[in-house]
Amino acid sequence: MMKWLAALALTFTSLTAQETWIKDYLTQVPDFPQKGILFQWYANLMKNPDGFQKAIKTFADRYRDQNLDAIAGLDSRGFIFGAALAYELKVPFVTIRKTGKLPRPCERIDYQLEYGKNSFEIEIESVTKGDRVVIIDDVLATGGTASAAAELVERLGGKVVEFACLIEIEPLKGREKIGRPVYSMLLVD
Length: 189
Description:
Blueprint: H1 2-7, E1 27-30, E2 38-41, H2 43-47, H3 49-63, E3 70-74, H4 77-89, E4 93-98, E5 106-113, E6 116-123, E7 132-140, H5 144-155, E8 159-169, H6 174-178, E9 182-188
Parallel strand pairs: 3-4, 3-7, 7-8, 8-9
Antiparallel strand pairs: 1-2, 4-6, 5-6
Helix pairs in contact: 3-4
């Protein structure tokens, strides 16, 4: 049993934006959402109001003086951090959703995941030309999701200021695929 637990221990890099306190809230879940994926799960952070508040404050401190027009959260776990951050910064929250979830006219993009394919949509009127937008999600892995979301925002005329995430899986090199500025609170090896 101890060997199995030791195998699940997290290793953390010493690169940028290290909020290493987050590691105390993480659990690794093997083979989720499919075999071969080692999911970094932060449910314990969500259960701890002080920890969650600290995470939102860390994001807010980074973006408070950047004259943002919106925070865009990715379906679905990006909604958790995005809505709270938009509330804290007093800016609109925009949802970027899986296909068929939004009721008004949408722009759509298909993209590749590390474990399959998917599509995103954004309501056409949710971003206007020149809007400065931060896109946020929980985890950055291969960058396919973030890159697709950025392209949607830009198709509507918005400017992606940065892609933000709680956790970045650094060996998957997702930030290279995004091709835009990236901020991750914690890089995991």
